[in-house]
Give the backbone structure.
Amino acid sequence: MMSLYRLLTVLILSGMTLIASAAGIPISNPARVEDVQEILRIFAFDQKIKTAIRREVENSNNTKPETYLDPEIYLRPFTVEAINLRMSVVVSKYISNDYAQKLLKDLSKPIGKISTRIDREEMNRGSDVAKSEFMKLSPADRKAVNDFRSSANYLSFLNALKNSTDERKEMVGQWAKEEMQGRANLARKVIAEMTAQYLKAEQEDKMESLNPSDRIPLTGLRYFDQEARLTYEYLRANIKQSKKYSEEIKSLDLAKVLKAESLTTRQGLENSNLTVLSAENIFSNNTKHFESLRTAYGEASQRIVMPQQQREEIIAGNKSSTERIFDLQIRHDEQLRIFLELVKQVLSLCENRFGKIKFVDNTLHFETDADLKQYNDLIKRINVTVQAIKDLEKEDLEYRTQALETFKKK
């Protein structure tokens, strides 16, 4: 007994010429796609392909854990119906319309149904079971099955499968790639959208309005999903810390520190000194927290099992962005330190000259020109420092906006 799957091998090895075009070349009078769909359904060829794809994924996962694929997610698009349609579009180009229609008629006959049943037995339970079922047939039916499998109609279908092999493989590969790319793009889109919201809220000083989702789409490619989730959680942690920092700074109301009424009373000076001390602690804690987040992100990224090439690309990308961000952070922190030091010098001047500096008609009046000059010089330096801080924050925002646009194009 010759099966659908073994017969093709036997024919190739024996050098027999199959009916239809040369290997890999579509014919001029192709079958209707819907006819081929029905043929593939009858032979359960679509189910066999689905099983083969799953087996290939499982084998790959066992031998290449660095590119592990979640079968349930990865195989979701590969339904029997979808496989049937896509395979039929390809195979129909390699079998003639006449042979396809004749084969469909043969398959509807009793002997065609018997042959198909035995083929299914071999596919589902193995060749030994199929051979046993074949031997249970009467001699007349065994001969009829062999005659059917030697017919031009049946062989034309085998030939179509053989000649379409390369195109079918290419189609499945491209299909899988497009599905994976689509899921990856969706995951990136979620990250990009949250980043854009983060930058907008930061620019508008409305961090309290942010409420990022904790969900991110999965692609099925484990290392990609783990890296995407890590990046997403890192971004959410940054947003959480930024909101906390923003709320703390706003609650301090640093603008009051240098107001004239705060510089000419004991209570005002005491409150201003406490505010500056709180600001120093908030700035320091904020810097430490962001450094801790970056360190944790880097360490977690190193623990993800992935291909070496992808790891090197991620490390290179992170190194470039981290160096730029770290440089901006250092310069920003230095300007904040200078700002607070200058504010403390103003407070110290007012404490040392307490009682000699008056607040009259909404104006500070100093007893000596030297004190006035020292005060004006400090305020001038404070304004220069504040502008430097704003310039660095603008540069940082522009850099991250540019990085976001680059990320969207990946």
In short: The chain has a mean pLDDT of 88.
